[in-house]
Design goal:
Layout: H1 3-21, H2 29-40, E1 45-48, H3 55-66, E2 70-74, H4 81-85, E3 86-92, E4 98-104, E5 111-115, H5 122-125, H6 129-134, E6 136-139, E7 142-145, E8 151-156, H7 169-172, E9 177-180, H8 186-197, H9 210-220, H10 227-238, H11 249-254, E10 255-257, H12 261-277, H13 285-296, E11 301-302, H14 304-308, H15 313-324
Parallel strand pairs: 1-8, 1-9, 2-5, 5-8
Antiparallel strand pairs: 3-4, 6-7, 10-11
Helix pairs in contact: 10-12, 12-13, 13-15
């Protein structure tokens, strides 16, 4: 397949996925696009939204359309790392000899829904770190490879903090995007009613499989990025640090730490997929601006004053773009 055909197939597959998801999901076009970008970049996404907006349905439907093995982990305070990774169990052969056999946990899927991830203890949350970063897990000294493509979609409820454990910064930084699930408008609510309270039948079709996803992923790093775009993305990340000369007054006032180098990597990789979706062969500054919020909003660590006053990191990112643009 030549380059033109490969780029065209990415746009075609994206359109088909959006069309197919519309059978079960109403609206949320920006969220779906960002999930597709995250998938092709080999990243993981943290989805934030109030209950009842269809987060679980979205991930399950996406796994069917992509023909990937779906696995759900419901995080609770009593969940243990072995409940996620798996454990060795004692078995006995026909001669009465006992031996250990590894029983795989739910992490051994391809599209993982980590539901209400902030309800589990830090010890259990950390069980995901190796899987998210390296694509494998280590149990009792043995390393097990996870089947690619592998993607974790974690959800958390932004309004209910009682009985939760905030994610450590090291784990938050491993999420490629932080996505916000917006509340539907009046027309969208009417469509949701029609699809959930009436005799509505749907059947999801498989659009792409693991092999096609890996082929599309291999194309992403071949997209060129001009030096002025790299420079813009770099200055954007540096300006998120309160000690940087280009930092805005509000960044200096409310931010403790700015975005990490992973934030810069996310900007460039996501910009490449954004360009491919638009059937372009180069990344523009507009691509960087479009994905700046999901790539950086969770990487800006607010200080005590910023947390107390409820400062919105999206607004801080908008101010940085306006200043350095």
């Amino acid at each position: 397949m030549n380059l033109d055909s490969a780029v065209e197939s990415i746009r075609k597959n994206f359109d088909l996925i959006v069309k197919e998801l519309a059978k079960t999901i109403v609206g949320q076009e920006a969220l779906i696009k960002n999930l597709f970008i995250c998938l092709l970049c080999g990243g993981h996404a943290l989805i934030e939204g109030v209950p009842g907006l269809g987060k679980t349905l979205l991930v399950r439907s996406l796994s069917e359309i992509l023909d990937l093995r779906y696995s759900r982990i419901q995080f609770t305070p009593d969940l243990m790392p072995a409940d996620i990774l798996g454990t060795n169990i004692v078995k006995e052969d026909g001669h009465g000899n006992r031996f250990f056999e590894f029983y795989k946990g739910p992490i051994f899927g391809q599209l993982i829904l980590a539901d209400e991830i902030n309800r589990a203890s830090p010890k259990t949350q950390s069980a995901l770190l190796e899987a998210m970063q390296e694509g494998n897990v280590t149990v009792f000294g043995s390393r097990y490879r996870l089947k690619p493509p592998f993607m974790v979609l974690a959800t958390q409820n932004p309004i209910e903090m009682e009985g939760t454990y905030p994610l450590p910064e090291a784990q938050i930084d491993r999420f490629f995007f932080k996505l916000k699930l917006e509340y539907p408008g009046p027309d969208e609510l009417q469509q949701i009613l029609e699809k959930t309270t009436e005799d509505y039948q749907y059947e999801l079709n498989r659009i792409v499989g693991a092999e096609s996803i890996l082929e599309m992923k291999s194309l992403v790093k071949q997209v060129p990025v001009a030096n002025h775009v790299k420079d813009f993305a770099t200055r954007l990340v540096l300006a998120s640090h309160p000690t940087n000369q280009q930092a805005t007054d509000r960044i200096k006032e409310y931010v403790l730490f700015g975005a990490s180098p992973r934030g810069l990597q996310s900007l460039i990789l996501a910009g490449k997929v954004s360009a491919l979706i638009d059937q372009r062969y180069n990344v523009s500054r507009e691509d960087i601006n479009t994905i700046a919020k999901p790539a950086l909003r969770h990487r800006l660590v607010l200080n005590i004053r910023g947390e107390t006053e409820g400062v919105d990191t999206d607004e801080l990112i908008e101010e940085i773009i306006a200043k350095i643009g």
